[in-house]
Design a protein that fits this description.
The complex is a heterodimer of chains A (594) and B (438).
Chain A: E1 5-13, E2 16-20, E3 29-33, E4 38-46, E5 49-54, E6 66-73, E7 75-78, E8 86-87, H1 94-101, E9 120-124, E10 131-132, E11 137-142, E12 148-152, E13 159-164, E14 168-170, E15 175-180, E16 186-190, E17 193-196, E18 205-207, H2 218-223, E19 231-235, H3 242-252, E20 257-263, H4 267-279, E21 293-298, H5 304-322, E22 327-333, H6 335-348, H7 362-370, E23 374-377, E24 383-392, H8 402-410, E25 413-414, H9 419-423, E26 436-437, H10 440-450, H11 455-479, H12 486-503, H13 510-513, H14 517-539, H15 544-548, H16 552-558, H17 564-593
Parallel strand pairs in A: 8-21, 19-24, 19-25, 20-21, 20-22, 22-24
Antiparallel strand pairs in A: 1-2, 1-6, 2-5, 3-4, 3-6, 4-5, 7-17, 9-11, 9-14, 10-13, 11-12, 13-15, 15-16, 18-23, 23-24, 25-26
Helix pairs in contact in A: 5-6, 7-8, 11-12, 11-14, 12-14, 12-16, 14-17
Chain B: E1 6-7, E2 10-14, E3 17-20, E4 31-36, E5 39-49, E6 52-57, E7 70-73, E8 79-82, E9 90-92, E10 107-110, E11 121-122, E12 127-129, H1 133-138, E13 141-142, E14 149-151, H2 157-167, E15 169-170, E16 177-183, H3 188-200, E17 207-211, H4 218-238, E18 242-248, H5 250-263, H6 277-285, E19 290-291, E20 297-305, H7 314-322, E21 325-328, H8 331-335, E22 348-349, H9 365-389, H10 396-413, H11 423-434
Parallel strand pairs in B: 9-17, 14-20, 14-21, 16-17, 16-18, 18-20
Antiparallel strand pairs in B: 1-7, 2-3, 3-6, 4-5, 4-7, 5-6, 8-10, 11-19, 12-13, 12-15, 21-22
Helix pairs in contact in B: 2-3, 4-5, 9-10, 9-11, 10-11
Classes of the chains: A alpha+beta (594), B alpha/beta (438).
């Protein structure tokens, strides 16, 4: 039996506590602080003193109070029972806290992270291997109807499998396997294991991304796509619809497991998200969204230090499900609040501040976080992916601030939200001139193989029209529409259709909210078809007014409210109409020549 | 008991802070009483450094002397007594009665409150009528929401505040309703204006008035909104009132926060405001909401002044990131004689869809809102075009929209400071001004 390692508080300043005389403290070690045993983490060791960030309200701490070191790093408990949970940044189930402390979160509340009493049906693998290594699948639990929870050998365990439990009901603290390691020690394997949240889980190899992550949001999937295993950032000023867009993605994204981290954001938004997750179904499986989700809610008024841990906790959950061979999406809203927590912590630790007070290690921390994304071959040989999408909340909507800039250094996709678009109620308010995706080449093959050979060309045509619109609008602002030629006005008409019939997408209209890849391409193709004919007609001296009087635009605007099946028939008809009516238009001119 | 020990060991005084050495068992956030030549002042322990305690004195440190003053620690955090006795009362920023009446008695609550557990929150629902068309019709206030007014120096936000606290009501009268109004750093003149307005409207008996004046200490200004919210939480979640908390002016609060942070020697963030201002404001604004199992609600309408009319200034910017929309006042509307000068296009109530329409206001509310806003946006665009290209370039249809903007501003937005319009009247008026387009 080890003796308790403990020390005494000598200083309290906000959520940072300095303690003395802890025997051989460890960086990152979890400590319990004060009478109520508040959870803290060792953040700096300096001689006899350790600096501790405390994850709960420090009110009431005194000089001389006890600090007990637990000898382990801040860890997540991983096992059946995670899905459908709502946790705070320390993996305390908020439903449990609500039972203990009614409606408010107070310091010092203790709950177990996973249910240790619930029995799960464990089904062992058919032919158990004689030797096992970390990450190997030894069985499964049907955790929810949506997700089968693979039971993994903890990453740091390997050896001879001397016992594997038969099918039966077990709690997550009962042993289901015994492994004898190379030194002959017998290790008990349970369905749950601990993993330190700040250490990335190991995998066999990182793979190149090759498949898009379909979100059902047209501007994302078509123009600025993200891949399975990719990283994306969505910065925008307040009111530009960051949270709306991310919540919409989280509900309909093509993923097996979704982890939503509400980090330092609004409580009412979390309440709204929870209500929707509980009432809505995943339209692919028809099962409740909650069954494939874990929510981490550390709202802006909850302790700041736990904001820092909430992001790491979320990414650890995500890696765990990735290791089972799933496609996992992690949404972090907002990484700026996380960075602010780092700043506050750093200032209280009396570190030298860098740009705008943020610590000099801001960039490396952000990189460390986003680099945990990726498509990998897991230790057990399965392929899984972890995609990370982070919201950024730049002060004053100014993208030149450190968090936005350092994030852009790291991520591959940038969805720039624009308050001007939001102001005009154009949603999703993603600016098409500023946004970019560096994954276009990696997934072009997928689109061309599965959806349309013309994907790349259609995409380029659309972007070109939008760029030209921007130039033309500058002329219009100076000299009025009268200064434009018919061809230029035709371009404006096409760009209007791109904006209204394609880019603009209502999250509230259920027929429009999710646009599958076929539908997305069908609308884009239709607009492109119209563009071709309209520009050709105008260059053949057909007056623009006559072409516009055909009212093709109105038909195109209707398309997004159709399903992709309905669309197929509709676009054929519309194409025939375009061919017929445009050749009709150009006839009289020709007959005069004839 | 050690708690009654009086320490004469003050070793430093600087700004609002004093340091007392060789103390025992002092807790972070504990309240201390400082005797300054017979006068008792309240302080809060904001840091523990070895055997020394750093105390922030709420009423300021003028007169504190290293030899003469002594300090006693109470062992308790800052708590105020709350009960339904608070109705009709005027309290100072520390929660003590200043209207000459008896002290408020009741159960004591910590002014900092506790964060609402996200899983027990209910999404905001249902409508609060302010009697102001621009707000009720177009940026509706929803129970449990936090909806700030972004004003600027010289704009008539005090008049609007007074109108809101006089007129605010629920549509179903049988539900209990209360207003908690906290001034933050107002002048004596403004304070007596608010007081007279409330008396005249006979609205005092459902109102609690927390008065913080310019002349009060900056630290008291930091406590005042928390006192108001502690009272409001009690009324909403213990007594099941629907409570509207109006706080004016949050810019003064932020100034006080900056002053206190710099006095502590903290490294300043943007424009000198502390790096934790977002979190600090969140601990105020996030106290709005609905909690499952309790019938009450806590709604906030904070007012702030945008320095130099700049919406990207840290005060409105950080506020906007926390609140659920904003009501923006416009200087140009004000100059053209429109009261209340609400810029309805820049304003937004994010939760509006959850509290208007059938069952809350009227079935056609959202539709009227959409039509008014798009017509107004269209009209302003045409007006801009005609300014550049000349009015003759507009079609007659386009001119109709220009005409609409004028009628809309003068009849719908503009309203008397003592004119109370029911939501029905507001919506009918909306339909009426839309008929200009026919």
């Amino acid at each position: 039996m080890r003796l308790t390692r403990e020390g005494r508080i000598v200083r309290v300043s906000g959520f940072v506590v300095v303690a003395e005389d802890i025997p051989s403290p460890m960086m990152g070690e979890v400590v319990l602080v004060g009478e109520n045993g508040l959870i803290g983490e060792v953040n700096r060791i300096s001689g006899n003193r350790v600096f501790i960030q405390v994850y709960e309200d420090t009110g009431g701490l005194r000089f001389g109070d006890r600090v007990v070191a637990l000898g382990r790093l801040l860890s997540a408990e991983l096992g059946p029972g995670l899905l459908g949970q709502v946790y705070d940044g320390l993996q305390r189930p908020l439903e449990e806290i609500a039972k203990q402390a009614e409606s408010f979160v107070k310091a010092g509340i203790r709950t177990s992270r996973l249910d240790h009493e619930k029995k799960w049906r464990f089904i062992p693998v058919d032919s158990p291997p004689s030797r096992v290594f970390g990450g190997e699948i030894i069985g499964r639990v049907e955790e929810t109807a949506s997700v089968i929870h693979m039971i993994l050998i903890p990453p740091n365990v390997k050896g001879e499998l001397v016992y594997l439990a038969g099918e039966g009901d077990y709690t997550i603290v009962e042993e289901v396997a015994k492994v004898k390691d190379s030194q002959g020690r017998m290790l008990n394997v349970k369905m749950a294991h601990e993993w330190p949240v700040k250490t990335p889980r190991p995998f066999r190899e990182k793979l190149d991304p090759n498949e898009p992550l379909i979100t059902g949001v047209r501007i994302i999937d078509f123009l600025f796509p993200v891949v399975k295993g990719g990283t994306a950032a969505i910065p925008g000023p307040f009111g530009s619809g960051k949270t709306m867009t991310l919540q919409q993605i989280s509900k309909q994204v093509d993923a097996d497991v979704v982890i939503y981290v509400g980090c330092g954001e609004r409580g009412n938004e979390m309440a709204d998200l929870l209500e929707k997750y509980r009432s809505l179904s995943d339209f692919r499986s028809g099962r409740p969204l909650m069954e494939r989700s874990i929510i981490i809610a550390n709202t802006s008024n909850m302790p700041v230090a736990a904001r820092e841990s909430s992001i790491f906790l979320g990414v650890t959950f995500a890696e765990y499900f990735r290791d089972m061979g799933y496609n996992v999406v992690l949404i972090a809203d907002s990484t700026s609040r996380w960075a602010e927590a780092l700043r506050e912590l750093s200032l209280r630790m009396e570190e030298l501040p860098g740009e705008e007070g943020f610590p000099a290690y801001l960039a490396s921390r952000l990189q460390g976080f986003y680099s945990r994304a990726g498509r990998v071959t897991a230790l057990n040989g399965k392929t899984g992916s972890l995609t990370i999408m982070g919201a950024v909340s730049p002060p004053g909507g100014d993208f030149s601030e450190p968090v936005t800039q350092k994030t852009l250094q790291t991520v591959k996709v940038f969805w720039a939200l624009d308050s001007e678009l939001a102001y005009r109620r154009h949603f999703p308010a993603i600016n098409w001139l500023q946004s970019y995706s560096l994954y276009v080449e990696s997934i072009a093959f997928w689109w061309e193989l599965n959806i349309s050979e013309r994907w790349r060309g259609l995409r380029e045509n659309m972007l070109n029209i939008l760029r030209e619109e921007d130039e033309l609008m500058q002329i219009v602002r100076l000299m009025g529409v009268g200064a434009l030629s018919d061809r230029e006005r035709a371009v404006l008409e096409v760009s209007r259709l791109i904006r209204e019939a394609f880019l603009r997408q209502s999250a509230l209209d259920f027929k429009d909210a999710y646009s599958d890849p076929r539908k997305t391409v069908a609308i884009a193709e239709m607009i492109d078809y119209y563009r071709e004919h309209l520009l050709e007609a105008v260059s053949n001296k057909t007056p623009l007014e006559k072409a516009l009087a055909l009212n093709i635009g109105v038909e195109i605007l209707r398309l997004k409210h159709l399903s992709s099946e309905e669309l197929a028939g509709e676009t054929i008809k519309l194409k025939e109409r375009i061919v017929g009516e445009f050749s009709e238009l150009q006839k009289p001119v020709e007959s005069q020549h004839g | 008991m050690a708690k009654s020990v009086r320490y004469r060991s003050i070793v430093s005084v600087s700004g609002p802070l004093i340091v007392v050495d060789n103390v025992q068992g002092v807790k972070l956030n504990e309240i201390a009483e400082i005797d300054v030549d017979g006068e008792t002042r309240i302080g809060q322990v904001i840091g523990v450094e070895g055997r020394a305690a750093v105390i922030q004195v709420l009423q300021g440190t003028a007169g504190v002397s290293i030899g003469r003053s002594h300090v006693r620690f109470t062992g308790d955090t800052l708590k105020i007594p709350v009960s339904e006795e608070v109705f009709g009362r005027i309290l100072n920023g520390l929660g003590s009665a200043i209207d000459g009446g008896p002290d408020v008695t009741g159960e004591k609550f910590d002014v900092n409150g506790y964060p609402i557990n996200p899983v027990t929150r209910l999404p905001p629902r249902d409508f609060i009528q302010t009697g102001i068309s621009a707000i009720d019709g177009l940026t509706s206030l929803i129970r449990g929401q936090k909806l700030p007014i972004f004003s600027a120096y010289g704009l008539p936000h005090n008049m609007m505040v007074s109108q809101v606290i006089r007129q605010a009501k629920l549509l179903r009268r049988q539900e209990p309703f209360a207003v908690v109004f906290s001034t933050l750093g107002v002048s004596n003149e403004e304070a007596s204006f608010f007081r007279m307005e409330l008396e005249r409207a006979r609205a005092l008996d459902r109102t609690v008035f927390v008065l913080n004046l310019q002349s009060d200490s900056t630290v008291e200004r930091i406590i005042a909104p928390r006192v108001a919210l502690t009272i409001a939480e009690y009324l909403a979640f213990e007594k099941e009132y629907h409570v509207l908390v109006v706080m004016s002016d949050m810019s003064s609060y932020c100034e006080a926060l900056r002053e206190s942070s710099l006095a502590r020697g903290e490294i300043p963030g943007r424009r000198g405001y502390p790096g934790y201002m977002y979190t600090d404001l969140a601990t105020i604004y996030e106290r709005a909401g609905l909690v499952s199992g309790r019938n009450g609600s806590l709604t906030q309408m904070p007012i702030l002044s945008m320095p130099d009319d700049d919406i990207t200034h840290p005060i409105p910017d950080l506020t906007g990131y926390i609140t659920e929309g904003q009501i923006v006042l416009s200087r140009s509307l004000h100059l053209s004689g429109i009261y209340p000068p609400v810029n309805v296009l820049a304003s937004l109530s994010r939760l509006m869809k959850d509290g208007v329409g059938e069952g809350y206001t009227r079935r056609d509310h959202f539709e009227i809102y959409t039509m008014l806003l798009s017509a107004y946006a269209e009209g302003l665009r045409n007006k801009e075009l005609s300014a550049v290209l000349g009015e003759e370039t507009l079609t007659s249809e386009e001119r109709k929209y220009v005409r609409f903007t004028e009628v809309f501003e003068k009849r719908f937005i503009k309203q008397g400071a003592y004119e109370e319009r029911s939501i029905d009247e507001t919506l009918n008026l909306g339909l009426e001004v839309l008929s200009v387009l026919k």
